[in-house]
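ESCALATION

Customer reports they have been waiting on this structure for their group meeting. Please prioritize. Original submission:
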Amino acid sequence: MTEPPTMTSGSVRPFAAWLVRADAAADEVAAMAETAVAARSGPRPVHPEAFDPMPEAVYVYRQRTANADHVGIVCDLAPEVFVAGRVLRHEEVQPDRVDALARYLESVPQRVELVSTMHHAGPVAEQVVAEALASPPLLDVPGADGTRQTVWRVPPGARTDALCRELETGLHYIADGHHRVAAALEVWEHSGRAPGHGVLCAVYSLGGLRLDSFDRWVHGPVDAELLLDLLRRAFAVRPATDADDAARDGSAVYVGGRWYGARFTGERPPGSAGLDVSLLHALVLDHLPPQTRVEPVRELTEVLVTACDANGGALLVPPAPALEVVTAIADAGEVVPAKSTFFAPKPASGVFLRAPRDVATVGTA
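Update from on-call: job pushed to the front of the queue and completed.
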């Protein structure tokens, strides 16, 4: 891969924010707008009294789950760096979802949903994070899903300048937020590429997020024998006792009231086409009857099994790809099918808003 030109100075920058007040977090911190749009719910209103205005700054943002801490740096990235290929994507987007998100961003310009990116963390970023974690936070509140949200402000001046300069070197990879990036760029295009637009990102080190996959729920009724026959043409298929047993072979498949393990036996193509989710689409799902509805889902397995039992559907659970495979796909300029990878935890909505003066001069992205 020929690496594109480096980011120009000022491509990574502080931003003026409203930070949610601790006593209002229970009402304001919620799932991100992409989930709300998917559910066709209206935009959430902004309650100024629930937020404290902050000076322009960069922040350290930690999400603490029951299993791990995930720490990123929240900053503003110029939209030009996405267009120039300094921030790489690895996943297709669905145009209707992008359009819906763009309308959402334009309707409530203060409400921004953080995009998660990853990069090779340098010494400045590592030191900034270490110093923050050893100091009292600005904010420490529970999130809507029980993930604890903690925020520190990076000292302004030389420390912030050095951090932004370091983040401008090397490539960034979109982890979570392909649709949000596309929507932000659409808003920017609608403005005539007006100067000052930005995409708010939580920048994590490579490996700083948990990588999983989306399942494929085939709405019923499904011809179980047809699906199994398609699988057997390219996969070694065996009955399994449960989902965990099935997953030992690679992909776990639930159809006809029982689990099967499915291991690909052919020559695996390079890049995106060789991912298990891509193989399942190309060799199995794309050959089901045209009216078949296949939905990417993230839900408890037992919930999906119950749904399959209720309407005769099927569930395909591909394994998560390795992170180095995902970054190699991005480096090669390839993409995987939409909703194939899942990076967690997702940033919460409502921790940060853009300050009104940013909205007036920047628009929203």
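Sent to customer with the following note: Confidence is low (pLDDT under 50) at residues 360-365.
Escalation resolved.
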